[in-house]
Amino acid sequence: MPYARTEDFLATCAALTDHALEERLPATEEAPGRLHEAMRYSVLGGGKRIRPALAMAAACAVGGEPEQALVCACAVELIHAYSLIHDDLPAMDDDDLRRGRPTTHIRFDQATAILAGDALQALAFEWLAGAHSLTADTRLAMVQKLAAASGTGGMVGGQAIDLGAVGRDLSLEQLEQMHRRKTGALIEASVRLGVLSVPAAAGGPSHHDSLDHYARAIGLAFQVQDDLLDIEGDTSIIGKPQGSDAARSKPTYPALMGVDGARAYLATLLEQCRDSLSGFGPEADALRGMAEFVVSRRY
After folding, report:
1. pTM
2. Alpha-carbon distance 117 to 85, whole Å?
3. What count of other Cβ atoms lies within 10 Å of the Cβ of residue 30?
4. Which residues of the chain have pLDDT under 50?
């Protein structure tokens, strides 16, 4: 990895992503201006850009450069932003704070927030379909993967299960199934799209299978750490109210396994990430660093 630290890689990926999003999102001067303002507010208001960074790191792992994955990185981030807008709505999680700022429906209004989320979802697929530097077959594969990760078999389905699980006791298997959809599916898509963005990707199917295993492990690790941060995190750092999951009686890994059990499971998932990359050389160092970052992050 040509970066001395994972933080440097993350900063580079965030800068590339932010610049592309800033340039390509509809301008507020264009009608409908208020809708475009809400879209830009939601996407450009900070965020870790972990999913774009994973797409770019995956591209590096198969012999590419971060810039090759930029279009799919931006598309994934648009889907992520749309999901956060809708998750924060009163009909869903009813949150007033996101990334340390008022949520989109608080800053604007509920109708504008819903439309902004709808527009961002559509724009993600428009950008992928229009990425003419990629072959038609590659664009089709990307659209199909991202759509599957976003729908009832992925993020939306996971959110539906989550809403239905409030106040109920779930088994570990049920909790994992929920989070493999709600959180993990989009993270897995980020890695897969990053691989697809490199036309002559190095390695064969076994390498790509290993990256899929890595993506599944880091997707769950991200959620376990999120659940721990909900208990231990500082609102001023994590950007949302501490203890919000417990206040809603939502099923979480610490609630099911205890805090120590959740930490132990997090360590197991980190080992799975490392093991998945054992057949790669330095080209996968960015992915290795990302796994370490995800399990130790404080925000």
Report:
1. 0.92
2. 6
3. 9
4. 1, 237-238
Range of the domain at 170: 6-296
What is d(CA 28, CA 87) in angstroms, rounded to the nearest whole number? 24
Residues belonging to the chain: 299
CATH number of the structural domain spanning residue 229: 1.10.600.10
The 10s digit of each residue's pLDDT in 146-193 is 999 999 999 999 999 999 888 888 898 999 999 999 999 999 999 999
- What angle, rounded to 10 degrees, do the helices at 185-196 and 155-164 form? 170
Q: Which residue type, as a one-letter code, is found at position 226?
A: D
Sign of torsion over alpha carbons 96, 106, 48, 194:
positive
119 vs 85: CA distance, rounded Å:
11
E strand or H helix that includes residue 43? helix 33-43
Residue with tokens 């389905």: 157
Nearest-angstrom CA–CA distance, 177 and 138: 29
> Assign residue 49 a region: left if phi > 0, alpha if psi is -120 to 50, beta otherwise?
left
**Quick one: angle between helices 50-61 and 6-24, nearest 10?**
110
- Tell me if 132 is assigned to some domain: yes
**Total number of domains in the chain:** 1
Tokens of 30: 């264009």
Is 49 in contact with 185 (CB distance < 8 Å)? no
Q: Which residue has the tokens 């440097």?
A: 8
Residue 17, classified by CB atoms within 10 Å of its CB into exposed (0-12), middle (13-18) or buried (19+), is buried
